[in-house]
Amino acid sequence: MFSGVFYALLAGFLGAVASSSAKLSLGSDYLKGVCENGLKSWASDERHFRQADDTTVCDWLHIPLRLLCGGLLFTCNAVMWTCFAKALRYSSSSARATVTTTASNFISSAFLGHLIFGEAHAMLWWVGISLTLSGLLVLHTAAPHTGEQAVDKKEH
């Protein structure tokens, strides 16, 4: 069996993939532009299509691509919630699982946003993610409280 940390990291990544899929499925201009650029570069190498054929194909091809991204959105969300539930089950605390999933989602979203959409983040974003990761490090290195420690504190 995998540990709760693995499931939390996977849930965060799947959440980022789902949000990227939503952005792709709802923004038809981006997929249409990718289609046109891809076909133009392929057509210039292969000389298979004329310029008029390239735009005609992309006028309808972006619709199945959007539907595919929409299906990926729902699939990733379903698997993400399953992984998050397993992370909660196998982690020593729900806070540990939640913060790990959130940090994984932030980092994965930044990576996918840069890779797919060419997004860049401001310095304030990097400061925020650094603080989040620092808190995550403290949370994972802290010793978990046991029932005996809680009883000892009540007696004193």
Question: Can you offer a commentary on this structure?
Answer:
- The protein is an all-alpha fold.
- It has helices at 4-26, 28-46, 51-90, 94-117, 123-141, 147-155.
- The protein is 86% helix and 0% strand.
- Helix 1 (4-26) packs antiparallel against helix 3 (51-90) and helix 2 packs across helix 3 (51-90).
- The two termini are 40 Å apart.
- The mean pLDDT is 83.
Main features:
156 residues; mainly alpha; 6 helices; elongated
Short recap of the structure:
The protein is built from 6 helices and no strands. By secondary structure, the chain is mainly alpha-helical.
Strands, helices and their partners?
Elements: H1 4-26, H2 28-46, H3 51-90, H4 94-117, H5 123-141, H6 147-155
Helix pairs in contact: 1-3, 1-4, 2-3, 3-4, 4-5
Question: Radius of gyration, rounded?
Answer: 22 Å
Q: Give the percentage of residues in beta strands.
A: under 5%
Helix content: over 70%
Distance between the amino and carboxyl termini = 40 Å
Number of strands: 0
Mean pLDDT over all positions: 83
Query: Which regions are unreliable across 5 or more consecutive residues at pLDDT < 50?
Result: none
Could you say which structural class the secondary elements and strand pairing correspond to?
A: mainly alpha
What's the oligomerization state?
single chain
Number of helices: 6
How would you characterize the largest beta sheet? none
Order of helices and strands: HHHHHH
Globular, elongated, flat, extended or rod-shaped: what is the shape? elongated
